Amino acid sequence: MSGDPSGALRRLAERVGIVPEYLDQSGSQVRPTSDETRIAILGAMGLEAGTPARAREALEALDAAERAALLAPVQVSPHGGAAPRLELRAPRPGAELRWQGTLTLESGEQHRLEGHGRADVHGIVHAGLGHPPEGYHTVRLRFGGRAEREAEQRLIVVPRRAPHVAPVFGVIANLYTVRRERDWGVGDLTSLAALLEWTAAEGGAFVGVNPLHAIRNRGWDVSPYSPVSRLFRNPLYLDPDAAPRPSPRARALLDSAAVHTERAALRAAPAVEYERVMALKRRVLEALHEGFTPDDGYRRYLETQGESLTRFATFEALADRFGDGDWHGWPPAYHDPAGAEVAAFRQEHASRVEYHRWVQYELDRQLGEAAARGRGAGLSIGLYQDLAIGTSGSGADVWA
Q1: Partners of 23 in the β-ladder
Q2: Gap between the Cα atoms of 9 and 48, Å rounded
Q3: Do the bridges between strand 135-143 and strand 149-158 make them parallel or antiparallel, or are there none, so unpaired?
Q4: Which residue of 32, 139, 274, 371 pairs with 217 in a disulfide if CB–CB is 3.0 to 4.6 A?
């Protein structure tokens, strides 16, 4: 606003916290805030400043509102120092104020406030609050007079210094890179358990891993930050060797020369072969599921996960059926997870839906066992998983 010699726009912007310039993310270039940007941000804050006159009016309105406010909206007070006091703004120096109200602590405990006082030469009346504990508290007051008025303040009582935290260290890893001698060409939950135990033995406190969300595991769809679902996990990380009670067919498949040869080739590959790893694991997992007998742990898992698990498993079964994990390409009748066609599919392909529910149960079980091994080894903080910010628009969460 070059036609604003008084600088009202810039003073208004600074008044509400709009910085005049900033250092860009490269750390090498200072970018000034343009007047156009100031006007746009102020407009988003409800302040019209498109002309010098409007900017001055907005600034004057803020000044008037501040003068008229009986209490500042926020007060920050260090705990253990001087007791916090309210600064009540009287209409003029020497005026007498009477008030009553409450101090509501963060815990919900309430204390009655009541008093009166005469304003000093600056028009301020001071009122004591005692010694509230640390926390976010609320002061609400009513003022008597010709017209009763109310005011509220957020009282934030902070520690005098940051709490001391003993230094700790841990390991952050992308699980697919955590390899071991007998893996299937990718780091898995057995690898994770070993990493947790090793970190604990070295005195570490935690292990962090990439998101373990379900992804498609083929082509370019291998990023854990654009998952099919944030609610359920990626079967790529299952260790088929760790599944309990393999059936004779599953045991024979695990011990077969073909599986051993493919595992060796995947371990020798220079990069994770997502699609090949998943194809091999799926063959074995399907055989393992055939011999699975539901137990109390499985029934509890199904009860805990409820309809969300059933819908995810149905989505995965539909993706198997149509050979496409993007539901937008399916016949329109299958776009509605609550529709009749989907219900009929779920009934007709119940064994396939059940397979995908079991896969998620086995992932949950193996992950739980890995975390327990870390705790047993002395990992004081434990395991944490990163989370994707969003989910794929073509995936199960959006479809559901």
Answers
A1: 30
A2: 10
A3: antiparallel
A4: 274
User: Per residue in 279-324, pLDDT tens?
Assistant: 999 999 999 999 999 999 999 999 999 999 999 999 999 999 999 8
Structural domains in the chain plus CATH codes: 8-67 (no CATH), 69-158 (2.60.40.2030), 170-399 (3.20.20.80)
313/298 Cα distance (integer angstroms): 15
- The residues that bridge with 30 in the sheet, in sequence order, are 23
Name the token pair of 166.
């003993």
Q: CB-based contacts of 357: which residues, under 8 Å, 6+ apart?
A: 302, 309, 310, 313
Q: Which of 108, 359, 381, 133 is nearest to 228 (CA)?
A: 359
Query: Mean pLDDT over all residues of the chain?
Result: 93
Judged by DSSP in three states, 238 sits in coil
Closest CA to 212 of 310, 327, 359: 359
Q: What is the pLDDT of residues 217-260, one digit of tens each?
A: 999 899 999 999 999 999 999 999 999 878 899 999 999 999 99
Rounded (5°) CA angle 68-128-155: 65
List the Cα angle 368/372/373 in 5-degree steps.
120
pLDDT single digits (tens) 38-85: 999 999 999 999 999 999 999 999 988 887 888 999 999 999 888 899
Determine the distance from the C-alpha atom of residue 26 to the mean position of all C-alpha atoms in its chain, rounded to a whole number: 26
SS3 149: strand
Instruction: Write out pLDDT tens, residues 161-178.
Output: 888 888 899 999 999 999
- Is residue 149 predicted with pLDDT exceeding 90? no
Coil/strand/helix, residue 203: coil
pLDDT > 70 fraction of the chain, expressed in percent and rounded? 98
Question: E strands within the chain?
Answer: 21-23, 30-32, 74-78, 85-89, 96-104, 110-118, 124-128, 135-143, 149-158, 170-173, 206-209, 213-214, 229-233, 382-385
Residue found by looking up tokens 């090793």 in the block: 198
Distance CA 341, CA 396 (A): 17
CA–CA separation, 308 and 306 (whole Å): 6
Query: Letter for the amino acid at 313?
Result: A
Other beta carbons within 10 angstroms of residue 100's beta carbon come to: 14
